[in-house]
Write a structure and sequence with these properties.
By secondary structure, the protein is of the alpha+beta class. It contains 13 helices and 12 strands. The chain is 38% helix and 26% strand.
Amino acid sequence: MGASFSSNLTDAERAVHMFKINGYSATRAMARTDSLPSKRLAVGGYLWEVRYTASLIADSNHWVALKLVLLAAPRRADVKAALRCRLISNSVTSSIDGHIARVQARRRELRASGAIVDDAFTVECTITVITELPDNVAAAPAAPANVLPPFSGRGLSLSHHLGELLRRGTGADVTLVVSGKCFPAHRAILASRSPVFMASLFGDMKEKSSRSVEIRDIEPQVFGAMLGFIYTDSVPELDQQDGVVVAQHLLAAADMCGLDGLKIMCEEKLIAGATVETAATTLALAEQHGCPRLKARCVEIVAANLDAVMATEGYKHLMASSPLVMNDLLRAVRGRKS
C-alpha cells in the first residue's frame, strides 16, 4: 500500500526590532493602563507595534511587559503572530523570553540584570507572522526579474504619482483655504487618509457640498507639509535645519486631523531632537496631544536638568498650560534619587 502525505501550506515572515526604553525611572510613574509604543513595524503584510508597559501589578509584584499589537483588522482570519523578547545587556542576551503575544518580567529582575544603563535599556523583539494558506493554493511562479508588472509606471511609486497629482492639481474637486492661501485637492484622497476630512467632506457637515473649505488654526506652510504627507506618506520638511520646529507644529496639526502616521513621525523627530532648551515646551505639547513616548523622554530630560530647564521660557508655559504634569516630574526626580 502506498503512503499518502498531506501538509498545510504556510507563509511566514520574521522581523527583529531593537526597542530602546529611555527614561526608565520616569516610566515607572506610568499608570497600569499606560503604554509606550515602538515605531510601526511592517511584518507579514501587516502593521504592528510592540507596546511597553512599566507598571503592571500581579501577585504583589511589579512587572514590566511587552505586548504585540496588530494595528489593523487582519485580511484573513487565520493570521497568527508570535513575539519573542531578549533583554540586551552589554551585548549579552538575558532571560526575558517568551513565545506569546505578551512577554513579562519582574521589575526587580530587570534592575538586577544590569541592563539598565544611563536610565535606559534595550529589548530585542522578534516578531514572527504566520499565515496559513488553503490546501488548494499553489505557489505562483515568480515573474522574471527583468519584466515589470503591467501599469507599473516604469517603476515609479504610487506616492510619486499621487505627489504629482497634488502638485499639478489635476482633477481637484475641492479647494482648501488656509489663511487666504488656496490648496487644490481631491476629496476622496483626503477622506481616505483622515477621519476628520471624511466627516467634513462626506458627512453631514456643510463642507460636503462646498467646493471651498476654510481650514483654521494651521499655518499655510504647516498645512502644505501635512497635505504632502497625506498624498505621499513623506515629510521632507522634517529633514531640514528647522525640522524640530516643523515637527512641533505638524504634531498639533496631525492630532487635529487624525493623522496617526504623521503624528508618530513628528514624535520620533521630537524625541531625537529633545534638548534642555526645548524639553519643557515639547513636554507641554506631548501632554496636550497624547504622546506618551515623547512625554517620557521630556520628563527624563527635565528630571536630569531641573534647574536649567526651570530657567527656560518653555517651563513657564508648561506650568501654565499643564500644571498636572508637575506630579510626573516630581515622581521622576524622586526616582532618580532613589
